[in-house]
Amino acid sequence: MVYISAEKKKSLTTVTRKPYFHFLVDASQKSQPNTANNIKKITTLISNNRPLAENAQISYVNQYVNTTAFASGWEEQYENLTFEGGFFLDRAIRKTLSNNYQHNTQTYPVFVVVTDSIENAILNENFSDLAFTFPESSLFYNLDNSGVLREHSLIKNPSKQLPEVKRVCMFCESVLAYKTEDNTTVYIPANNSPSIILKKTVFDIPETEIKEKDWVSALKMQGQWNSQILHPNTSEKKWLTLVKHSFISKVMTPLTSYLVVENEAQKEMLKKKQEQALSGNKSLDLGEETQRMSEPSLIILAISFVLIVWYREKRKRRLALK
User: Fold this and answer.
1) Measured between alpha carbons, how far is 238 from 146 in angstroms, rounded to an integer?
2) Domains by residue range for the chain, with CATH
3) Across the chain, what does the average pLDDT equal?
C-alpha cells in the first residue's frame, strides 16, 4: 500500500485518460416493451459522440450482469435477451467500478443508464465507499426518453437527477499518474486530498502490525477496508479481523463507528467484551450462564449485535446480486 500526501501530489504528472461509454441497459421483466425506443436512443447518442463509442461496453442488467463489447449486431443481441427479474443497477455499477480499478488502464467508463424509470432501479444507498475507483468524476448519466443525458451522482442519492449545469467540456477531467516500484501506473484524483493506493487489491495485515493510536496502522486498516470493498466475496471472512483491528488500534472504522454506549455500565461491559475478544477468550458471560463458543466471531457478535447484523445483511444483499 502507498500513501500519497497532498504535497506529494503536486509533483505528479497530470494526465487525461480516454473515456468510453459503458451502457447499463435495463433487462428486467418490465423493460421489454421499451426495447425499440432504447435502441433508437442509444444509436442517436453514439452517432453524436463517436469518440466515446470506441471501446464502448454494454451490460444487460437484471438479476445478472452480462457485459460485452459494444459492436455491430448489438441490437439483435438486445432484442433476443431473456427479460426477467428486476433491474439490479447497484450490482452492475459496483462490479464495473471494481473491475476497472483492478485493471487500471488508460481508459475509464462513463456510465450511461438506459431505462424508462431509473427510480425503479435497485440501488443500495450510494457508491461513496468506492470513490477511490472513479478519480475523474463522481457523475453517471441516465439516458432519458428524449435521448438526453441527465446527470446523477455516484456519491449521493444516485437515483435523483442533478440540476442541469452548462459545461464547457464533458468527459475531459484530468487525473494524476503515479508509478509504483514495479513500474505500474496508478491513477488518482487531481485534488488537494491525500490518496491511498493498493499495490495489490487483496490486502491483508498481520495483527502484529496494528499499533494503538497509530496513524500508519489506521492507513493500513483503510487499505484493508478498501480491499474487501473490491472483493465483496471476502467480506464475511474479513469483518471480524476489521473489527478486531479497530479494537486493538483504538481507531474507529466504518464498522465500529456504529458502536454507541449510553451509560457507564454499558461502557464497562463493552470494554470487558473487547478484552475478551482480543485475548481470544471463547467463553463469554451472557448473564445467567457461560456458553462455550467455537468461533471468535460470536464474541464480537455479542459485543455489537446490532452493528454486525446491519453489516452482514448489507453485504449479503450485495452478494445476492451476483
Assistant:
1) 45
2) 1-16+174-192 (no CATH), 18-153 (3.40.50.410), 200-319 (no CATH)
3) 82
CA distances to 243, 255, 275 from 266, in Å:
18, 19, 14
Neighbours of 321 (CB within 10 A): 20
3-class secondary-structure state, position 226: helix
CB-based contact 61:92 (threshold 8 Å): yes
Q: Give 263: exposed, middle or buried? Use CB within 10 Å, 0-12, 13-18, 19+.
A: exposed
> Is the predicted pLDDT of residue 188 greater than 60, yes or no?
yes
pTM for the model stands at 0.77
pLDDT of 296:
42
Q: What is the pLDDT of residues 126-172, one digit of tens each?
A: 999 999 999 999 999 999 988 999 999 999 999 999 999 888 888 99
Other Cβ atoms less than 10 A from the Cβ of 89: the count is 27
DSSP structural state of residue 164: P
Amino acid at site 303:
I
Q: Are 283 and 290 in contact (CB under 8 A)?
A: yes
pLDDT digits (tens, 9 = 90+) for 211-248: 877 777 777 878 777 888 888 877 677 767 777 777 77
| Phi-psi label, residue 105: left if phi above 0, alpha if psi -120 to 50, beta otherwise | beta
- Please tell me the distance from the alpha carbon of residue 232 to that of residue 20, in angstroms, as a whole number: 26
Q: Which long-range contacts (CB under 8 A, 24 or more apart) does 274-280 make?
A: 274/247, 274/303, 277/244, 277/247, 277/303, 278/244, 278/247, 278/248
Task: Retrieve residue 283's grid coordinates.
Answer: 467463553
Residue type, 119: E
Q: What proportion of the chain, given as a percentage, has pLDDT over 90?
A: 52
